[in-house]
Design a protein that fits this description.
The complex is a heterodimer of chains A (148) and B (622). Chain A has 148 residues and is an alpha/beta fold. Chain A is built from four helices and five strands. Chain A has a five-stranded mixed β-sheet. In chain A, a hairpin with a 2-residue loop joins strand 4 and strand 5. In chain A, helix 2 packs across helix 3. The longest helix of chain A is centred in the N-terminal third of the chain and has 29 residues. Chain B is an alpha+beta fold and 622 residues long. A six-stranded antiparallel β-sheet of chain B has the order 1-2-5-10-7-8, with no helix packed on it. In chain B, a hairpin with an 8-residue loop joins strand 11 and strand 12. In chain B, helix 2 packs across helix 8 and helix 9 packs antiparallel against helix 19. Classes of the chains: A alpha/beta (148), B alpha+beta (622). Chains A and B meet through helix 1, helix 2, helix 3 and strand 2 of A and helix 4, helix 5, helix 9, helix 10 and strand 2 of B.
Chain lengths: 148, 622
Amino acid sequence: MTPRVQRIVQVASVVLIAIVAVVNVVQAVRRTPPQPRVPAVVTPPVAMRQEARLARVRDALRARGVTSPLGYIGDLPVADWPADYHGMEDYTLGQFALAPWVLDAHAERCTWAVANLRTGDPARRVPATFRVVVDFGGGLLLLKKATP
Amino acid sequence: MNALAVAAILSAWALGLLLVAALWPGPRRWRDDLVLVLPLGLLAGFGATSGIFFAVSLVSGRPAAVGASAECLVGVVLLTWLARRGANAPRPVVPSRSGSWLHLAVGAVFFQAVVVSLVVAWRSYIAEPFGGGDAWAIWNMHARFMLRGGTAWPDLLASPQINWSHPDYPRLVSGSVARVWGWAGNEAPCIAALISALFAAATVGVLMASVARLRGRLAALAGGLILVGTPFFVTFAANEHADIPLAAYMLAAVALALLVEGSAEARGGWALAGIFTGLAAWTKNEGLLFAVVFGAVWIGRQVRRGGRRAIGFLVLGILPALLLVGGFKLLLAPTNDLVGATVGSRLGQAFDVARHRLLLASLWRDVRAFGEWALIPFLPMLLPFLSGARVRRVAGGRLVPVVAALMLAGYYGVYLLTPMELGGHINSSLVRLLLQLWPLALLAWCLALPWTDEEVVAPPPRARFGGFIAANATVAVILVAVLSAQTTPRDLAVARSGLVEISAAFGAGWFDQERHGRDSWAWSKGRATLLVHVDTQRNGAESTLRFRLRGLARQQVTIRLGPRVLWQGEVAEKFVPVELSRVPLAAGTNALEFSTDTPGTPESTAVNARALTFAVYNFQLK
């Protein structure tokens, strides 16, 4: 190719790259819509909801000098987690919210436990060996193993 | 986010700038390369301060405050060194460059692409303030333990109950986030998001500035456009993971090595390349692989060229971070889950044809799709090479694709021998691994381009830079205004007057909103609320609401705002226009209560047919 043609090809390729970039940036805009204007219809992300829900628990744990590990009882039993990712997600977010306490998904191994039950029945999910220390409402309970 | 958080970020940046400036290789002064020094300084600063914070957090319950003192000390030492160095430095002549019409046009497109990308990154943050899954399960989780756990945090994080959070992962990102949280006195998620976004910005900055030095500004703009035009890169920028920071450090290490290739005054450059290599290892476990790969490739090259001095300074640069990583891995971190299971028993997986087939198929799928492009850029990226033009190669440039390829081979080997279920492991990570290598791949592409600025365009007339800036700023403001005014399907209507914005959305009691052409409507289940939100600093506002009502059966519909009845009338199958004039609305969300005296009418005889009462059509706000 002559130098003139080479220059034309090179300019054209720059222009094409710019056009492709613009199309892709528009794609990025379409993939990230804004939040609805009315706050009441915005569903907070699951991490924020868990964070807000468990905020009260940390103060209660601190006030009672609770140390790790802390049992965690969610709506789904551990055995159901492989089939339903919500179980692990709930526990992981619970751990994120309650750090630096270390949460144990097998609550029966711990002296203290938190039950975070939105849909689960406390009578069925909470082991009989635990008694309720604080009922935060809405299925959120701080539990302690009853001394024999 | 408060002033202290900003101060924490700026102080880290300042420390990094001092470090980079103190080691900047001659003959050019660091001030002449400010466009490159600034993003490198940010990377070095976050790396250094995260290391200081990590070390201090092991012995002090107030690591932010104590670490700040250590940072001041380091800063004073670097400042003294820099002052001494600067007094003796010769002043080379740096050629000035003027812009051509092509530079300005492509530069304008790039500038606006960055502006739009910032809006996209902001929206991504708003949708998930704590970032994606790995952000709150790993990186921000570790940051919380480092900050909240006192000096006991290593033992807490090493608890077997939470080994799913990968406590063996290096601590650059978590340490940086925990440090700024410590300075700020709160754990605002926007801090973690901002740090994440700054790493992304630094990646773009390092890529473009280094390519501009090595190949020219047009190649730099092309590389920057492709990177910013990668939707996954932009949406992931504020996602608070460690993949983009790792990409940034790998890019910085390789770019610096290329910049000092063949230079007689390169000691500081080699040391900086080593520092960024070490910081890559301090960022993610993949960074350890990079340290081995890059070290081997570049040391091999220097051995062939008799560059023992270069090797020495590279190793000197790597050493601090490598000691940090080594100490962390050997003394504090539990065993990594991938290497913990006996490797010997898994060697047979390397000969499993089905695994190779799955891996190659996944690579083929994800290489084409990881960027989430509407238009894959690979074909346009090949076009420049069709011109047949030849330009002088960048010394050492051929080794960039070698490093990237060896990294990919390393990832392939890890997948091959993984103890995890292969499909799940690939699906949860491959696209992010490709994103880690993407800036490096773009660097290789830019260096291979058969262009230089002088060859592509004829000597230009001097461009009016001021006018360029003003025009682009105006377009940027318009773009941001348009994007800010964008509504979602859930926004029924939006009206603005001055500083007051009023918006409406269906609340509870409605079936899903429906659309046909320019009409939109929703059927009520009986009692329903329509929410009208007034966003203003004043006490409230007035608005006129217009819509049409229709019902499946004749019924009386009442619309109330609190105790006040705004409208009451008969609704049947024929449309009834409704105008609620100058309704006084309080600041915040107002709930208009719709009710009817008639139960719902099934829309069909199907078992799960909806019982419909009345519908609101084409709601408008004035």
